[in-house]
Amino acid sequence: MNALLFRRKNKLTVDLGGLHQERDNLCSFLHSNLNIDITSKGKELLVDSDELSPQELKRTVRKFVYHRNLNNTYWVALSNGVVKINKFKEAKKNKRKKEGTTPSIITHGW
User: What DSSP element (H or E) covers 82?
Assistant: First the structure.
């Protein structure tokens, strides 16, 4: 019985990274899907839950990114209990110098 009185809720963190403009939408998505309390602190969301695992939170955040069609530019990672939304680095494009077509050396006999 005493163990239930002193049991702390898990403090899980979602680091929004470059997706801070979607903070309110993510809060409402997590609240509606998981029925948990969420507080916002800068570029982080703090999740209070006693039965939610970090893997479950990661899966739900990934689902949000997918439903908002952001999965081509953002990806979700879990490290040290923190769910982080990262942006893909843009690949450097090799700029080839386009050379003009060379004139044909073959002489035509007509």
Answer: strand 82-87
